[in-house]
Please model this.
Amino acid sequence: MSATKRRVQSRPGLADQTNVLATAIRADGRHDHVTVRAERGFLYVDVDEEPVVRLEPLAGKTYRLSFHHHSGRWEPTPFTGDLGRLASVLTTEFGAYLNSYDFPPAKSGPDH
Model:
């Protein structure tokens, strides 16, 4: 007997929502390095190609916001809403999580 991989389909239109969410997150001009992708029925927000946030589709156009925990699990937050609301929550309440890890070289030495 051979093992069969089950392919998980994304919800129709979920891929289109990646552009909506990415545009909303990048609107302030500070998060151009953030990317959004649809995979396995979820929207993932990646910072420097690392998954940080996952949006789980609920009923209609409502999503639940979860953060990637260092243990590898997704920790749900109490935030739900449409993509515009959650993009606003991400950029205002959780903006530090969207910051790029590509920091400029630190100044060091006796002069600083």
Q: What stands out?
A: Residues 1-9 have pLDDT under 50 and may be disordered.
